[in-house]
Amino acid sequence: MVQRAKISEMEKCELLELFNNNYTNGLSVKFIANYSELLLRQKHHDKWKLDIMNMPKLRTFRCLETNFETQQYITTNMTRQQRSTLARMRCGTFPLELELGRYRGIPSNRRFCKVCNDNVSVEDEKHFLIKCPLYSCERNNAFADFQQRNNIDLSVLSDDEILIKLLTTDCKLVSNYIFNISKNQNSVTFSL
């Protein structure tokens, strides 16, 4: 019974043929182990990509992540708060109306920015970081600093490209920008 379960798992992973004596004759155990590891990693990577594509919440993450590897902001010397702020923005769990409205059962196209209060702009990551007029002063300062420090001209980029640059470059600066404008967001929302 246990032997059959092991064979079944090996079939799922397409590894059974490696252990067929006719096929592996002359191959070293190290080669077989390395090849098996490569196959298993590729299967896991493919499943990871498929899982990401099937989760609407990960809309921003999908446009940032192309490889299954440790991202720069994880290894950058930042405080826990800075890293958490950036991770939540990248993963779609930052408290924006697009996320908060899910819990209230509001259709995604009606999760408007409470700061703009125009009932037109859905508050998603792009609106929050790039478009919302309340944050224009902080945005202008942060973007000027970002452009100078990274030699990137944001004015020639689309909103999608700007979002990607912000969430993948100069992690500390961007995390501080997000944290600062979220404090403004909270003060305006609570005063409404």
From TrEMBL:
Superkingdom, taxonomy of origin = Eukaryota
This protein is called Uncharacterized protein
Source organism? Mytilus edulis (Blue mussel)
- List the top taxonomic levels of the source: Eukaryota, Metazoa, Spiralia, Lophotrochozoa, Mollusca
